[in-house]
Amino acid sequence: MTEPMLSVHDLTVAYGQVQVLFGVGFAVPRGSVTTLIGANGAGKTTIMKTLAGMVAPRSGTILFEGRDIAHLPSHDRVDGGLALIPEGRLVFGGMTVEQNLRLGAIAPSARAGHDEMLSEVYRRFPRLEERRHQRAGLMSGGEQQMLALGRGLMARPRLILMDEPTLGLAPVMVKKVFETIAELRAAGFTILLAEQNARVALELADHAYLLENGRIAMTGTGADMLASPEVRRAYLGM
Amino acid sequence: MKGIWPTAGVVLAGLALAAPLSGNAYLTGVAFQIAMWIALAQSWSMLSATTGYVSLGHAVFYGIGGYVAVLLVDAAPFPLVLLVAALAPAVFAAVIGLPVLRVRGPYFVILTYGLSELVRHGVMRIESALGSFGRMIFSAPSPEALLWWMVALAVAATLGAWAVRHSRFGAGLAAIREDEVAAETLGVPTARLKLLALIASAIIPGAVGGLAMMRTGYFEPGQAFDPVVSFTIVTMALVGGTDSVRGPVMGAIGFALLSELLWSSFPQLYMIVLGAALIGFVLFVPQGLSGLVDRIAGRRA
């Protein structure tokens, strides 16, 4: 068995007095889509922010390709091949699509060959090329999600963290986002996906972790979890 | 349209350098004032226009530079005096930067203002404890030499602001202005870039303060750290427009000329006009004079 790309051990995070994560551990195998599902407030976004270096853990280790990155600043993590597509997309609304994308390649490791990467992103998302000179803030939510994803790809990540990419999107766009995730997996990217939309996430994911009140409550393959009566009752409404 | 701006800049700098040839001391003084405000507004824009962290305390850098220059002017060659006057506020910026840049928006505005006032009162206390109620400067260079130095600073500040905006560093600062959290997720080292921008924007104001004290021939802390300097810088930059390096130049020229007119005829009106112009521009011409020019040019084209 090969070593996972990302493995998290005993992660504890608190905001001041309020503890949010209680010794969370999970692994993301190379080339997989691994999903974290769970209700609002279960701690999914906190995990994503901690992995990206925007929240400091109280204890625990985050091994990325064998190296503990738990205390690296976020820019060093991006430079090292880990990109976060944040919840709410956070595109730079006042800038054009192309300016947004170019900023995605600001990490030193992404600078060389960033023009080729731009053409690759445009090939993957033709819609972005059509709109390259448009202000990002004027695009639809789905287009902004594509832009956030394209901007993340510009950093040439090996591991992509996606926090609630379908939040607030129309069903047709949700489908499109998941198709894109499957394409990225086929292209060799490793993806960790935090998603409230449990059914679609589990259908796609190779591995899944169910998060409840800051703890991992259940784990298995996406298919196992879809079949589990407990998950079906609580998260799929069946 | 685009090529005329650098040309205009060169012509402007040439005119300013030539002002002493007129033999008219008043003209030399006006050119000095204009160059000074361009240098200050341009330096301010390196931090505040690029990152959106609006400093209302740039007088502190100007004042520190002025104070250092006054203390050193009899002891060292003039270029060295200016160099130290420029470096002192940069060191100050480096020390206060990390904590100060943790607060954003209106809190940053208030904090920079408060900090500037704190230093002003501190220096006033130190000076009065030393029994000094203002220092006369006897060994200042000639007004012509001071003007040439000041024009050099204005040019340097303008080129520096241009270089910042057109670099990867500037792209990172723009990302911070648009959305600091998003910038961080992209790998922008936000804390480091903000600190560098603050330091960069403190250097030239220090040298400017040194020259300004030499020009008045007198140092008094209440005046060297006068918050009106900070207000004027912000007003000029905003009225000129913060989207390009043209903006602070246009704002500085417009206001410096306006203030010459008003000081000579209606001194009481100066601050009122300054305030009214700021409100008017923020409300009705948010792109500033430079944006206005673009709009008119665009309509014609």
Describe the structure in brief.
The complex is a heterodimer of chains A (238) and B (301). With 238 residues, chain A is of the alpha/beta class.
Question: What labels would you give this structure?
Answer:
heterodimer; A: 238 residues; 2 domains; six-stranded mixed beta sheet; four-stranded antiparallel beta sheet; 26% strand; B: 301 residues; two-stranded antiparallel ribbon; 1% strand
Supply the CATH class of the largest domain in chain A.
Alpha Beta
Helices of chain B, by number, come to 14
Uncertain runs of chain A: none
Strand order of the largest sheet of chain B: 1-2
Topology, number of strands of chain B:
2
Structural class of chain A: alpha/beta
Strand order of the largest sheet of chain A: 6-7-8-3-9-10
Q: If helices are DSSP runs of H or I spanning 4 or more residues, what is the number of helices of chain A?
A: 11
* Order of secondary-structure elements of chain A: EEEHEEHEHHHHHEHEHEEHH
- Total domain count of chain A: 2
Query: What is the second-level CATH architecture of the largest domain in chain A?
Result: 3-Layer(aba) Sandwich
Q: Write down the overall mean pLDDT of chain B.
A: 92
Summing up helix and strand content along with how strands pair, one would put the structural category of chain B as mainly alpha
Biggest beta sheet attributes of chain A: 6 strands, mixed
Strand residue percentage of chain A: 25-35%
* Stretches with pLDDT under 50, minimum 5 residues of chain B: none
Choose one word for the global shape of chain B.
Answer: globular
Largest interface: A-B, 28 and 17 residues
Q: Rounded to an integer, what's the Rg of chain B over CA atoms?
A: 19 Å
